[in-house]
Specification:
- 2 copies of one chain form a homodimer.
- Helix content of chain A is 17%, strand content 47%.
- By secondary structure, the first copy, chain A, is of the alpha+beta class.
Chain lengths: 145, 145
């Protein structure tokens, strides 16, 4: 985390985050929510992801596969968390690409990513965001311990 | 939490939850993610919500208002959490209604709901789900402490 990190406060409760800080926050967590749109209706599912080198990797179950295969256009991966007296949220918009080549699957498997849950993983997905936005928001005193 | 709660395990890692259990889980948290669709592209934002009596109330900032006012069709509110050796996720789909009548706004204000963040709240929204689904998924041993 940068030393000169600006933090929001009561007078200025919302700060927009720059791209570097968004990547840093994404790299520090593996739980996000993937939102997709299908026939102009949204759907959203929790997913494990791994962010590194301006690229996001997801490891999906059959449930995720069925949802993303019918997804049209762009998807959004959202992650959020708490740090000190603020909460942050990062949204990465882009299109998902399913990894299918044996070489790229082998490269991913060498990373030994550990999804949280025991559901069988059937596909790897890559999200290279075309838009990355983040906000940090001050937490009220009753939630600030 | 019901005494006879079924829990997922390695042999059967995903359990679908019934409506009562979904409501019980929603009532136990106030942080969710609201997914909307606009011109067939998804958007997702963290929101505070309060679930009670088969009804969900959201208290939105200007940022939320701008996103939901342009949202078309249905929205989805997703909440998730961890309990013991499983994680759960509940999705409530429906349409949002903005509360505008002074009597209904006064009734909500008597509930003294406390959003986490300091951003100014400019609207109350009600979501009466037309579809409520939930899953409980077993967590792998390396994430099971």
């Amino acid at each position: 985390m940068s030393e000169d990190l600006r933090m929001p406060d009561a007078g200025n409760p919302t700060l927009r985050l720059g791209s570097d800080e968004c990547w840093e926050l994404l790299a520090g967590t593996t739980l996000g929510r993937l939102a997709v749109s299908y026939r102009n209706e949204p759907d959203v599912i929790p997913v494990n992801f791994w962010a590194a080198e301006k690229n996001i990797l997801l490891h999906g179950s059959e449930y995720v596969r069925d949802i993303v295969r019918r997804a049209e256009h762009q998807v959004v991966l959202e992650a959020d968390g708490r740090s000190g007296s603020s909460v942050w949220s990062v949204m990465a918009k882009g299109t998902l690409r399913e990894l299918t080549g044996p070489a790229e699957i082998a490269a991913v498997e060498r990373r030994k990513l550990r999804p949280w849950t025991l559901t069988r993983r059937v596909l790897y997905l890559e999200l290279e965001p075309s838009e990355l936005t983040g906000r940090r928001i001050a937490v009220g005193p009753e939630n600030n311990d």
